[in-house]
Structure to design on (427 residues):
């Protein structure tokens, strides 16, 4: 039977298409521009990779602190769209402003702000999944989001890549090329956010019987208490902390890693574009596979595949190896993120989706903080970039172990989760 997205599901998926352009900018053009600025300031290649890793770690730590609180606030009646809108606008504005900066320190500061706003928008966006589709459709809808997001991001990336390549060839000034690329991405991001902005309806929410902030903080505290009792959710989050580490770290630092090895910039960017193209059909096909194969098995295979990828990175030393790595990442990148999102959405209370996805983001962004920090420290300690990236294998191994424990825990949502759900049909 052919799977067809509903109108609400399509509008939700479109934001994946829009925000993926910024993701691609972060893992490709931003490191290139920072390398230029850092080089002008006399920073070595090893320190360049480390500083970029530290900035990424700072962003993920900030989101880990803000995500749960803003997620809890978004669960209040009518607040999800408001919080979502503010984060998108702040992120897009930061994206544009940072392209005009020539100081590497100020550039990294704006990078932290823009990336943090982008990441918080994803916390809210992910929690919207429970309002736009039914539980039995979540796996495929989530997979379509990531799959179409990867292929959809190729258009703005190609447009942004043109001035960058011209600048690398000396045909266009870097001061003109980079703002052009960043503005293209920001406009694409905001443009594809509009359908969700104008049509989203928050069906599941928590009533604010007292002060809004006080209510959201109180609700967030109850979530952490519930986690200690719900072992399936708890162990999944611990597993997610470990295995998503490498996924986010590889996405954020792929280009910086390749550049630190002295690989050709243009070919690196094209290789990462191929990753997006490969990820598109892979995410959708493996999402369809969830109809006949248990989602736990698919996620487990993805974790094991990433473990192998991180080990392979230890021996990477030329562009061919980087291309192989890029294709392998593309095969599993979208699937592991999409199915983790939908799997989690099905085992949490619907009316507390913002709070729970805020906690989900703590574990995800905490992992990214650990991963980028681990890569940076090991790289500087060994003076070897390959060992730095290869160290991520440890995180994937622990992720696989804890995911196996989570799968063995009893199924079912938190007690009373559906009974507490509030639906407002007039909204």
């Amino acid at each position: 039977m052919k799977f067809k997205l509903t109108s609400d599901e399509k509008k939700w998926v479109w934001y994946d298409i829009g925000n993926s352009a910024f993701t691609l900018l972060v893992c490709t053009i931003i490191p290139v521009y920072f390398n230029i600025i850092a080089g002008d300031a006399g920073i070595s290649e090893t320190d360049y990779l480390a500083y970029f890793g530290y900035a990424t770690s700072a962003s993920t730590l900030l989101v880990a602190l803000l995500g749960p609180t803003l997620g809890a606030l978004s669960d209040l009646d009518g607040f999800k769209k408001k919080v979502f809108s503010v984060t998108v606008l702040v992120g897009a504005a930061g994206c544009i402003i940072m392209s005009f900066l020539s100081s590497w320190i100020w550039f990294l500061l704006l990078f932290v702000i823009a990336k943090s706003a982008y990441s918080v928008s994803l916390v809210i966006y992910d929690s919207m999944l429970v309002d736009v589709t039914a539980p039995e459709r979540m796996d495929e809808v989530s997979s379509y989001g990531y799959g179409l997001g990867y292929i959809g991001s190729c258009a703005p990336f190609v447009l942004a890549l043109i001035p960058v390549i011209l600048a690398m060839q000396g045909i266009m000034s870097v001061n003109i090329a980079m703002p052009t690329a960043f503005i293209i991405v920001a406009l694409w991001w905001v443009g594809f956010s509009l359908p969700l902005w104008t049509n989203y309806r928050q069906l599941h929410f928590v009533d604010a019987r007292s002060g809004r902030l006080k209510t959201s903080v109180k609700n967030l505290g109850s979530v952490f208490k519930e986690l200690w009792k719900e072992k399936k959710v708890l162990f999944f989050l611990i597993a997610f902390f470990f295995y998503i580490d490498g996924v986010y770290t590889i996405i954020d630092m792929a280009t910086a890693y390749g550049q630190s090895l002295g690989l050709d910039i243009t070919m690196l960017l094209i290789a990462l574009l191929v990753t997006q193209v490969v990820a598109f059909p892979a995410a959708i096909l493996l999402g369809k596979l969830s109809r006949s194969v248990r989602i736990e098995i698919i996620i487990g295979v993805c974790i094991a595949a990433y473990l192998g990828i991180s080990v392979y990175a230890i021996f990477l030393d030329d562009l061919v190896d980087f291309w192989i790595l890029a294709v392998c990442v593309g095969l599993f990148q979208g699937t592991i993120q999409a199915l983790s999102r939908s799997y989690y959405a099905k085992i949490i209370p619907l009316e507390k989706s913002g709070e729970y996805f805020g906690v989900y983001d703590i574990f995800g962004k905490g992992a990214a903080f650990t991963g980028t920090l681990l890569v940076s420290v090991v790289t500087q300690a060994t003076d070897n970039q390959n060992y730095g990236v290869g160290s991520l294998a440890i995180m994937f191994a622990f992720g696989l172990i804890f995911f196996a424990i989570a799968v063995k825990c009893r199924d079912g949502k938190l007690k009373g989760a559906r009974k507490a759900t509030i639906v407002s049909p007039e909204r």
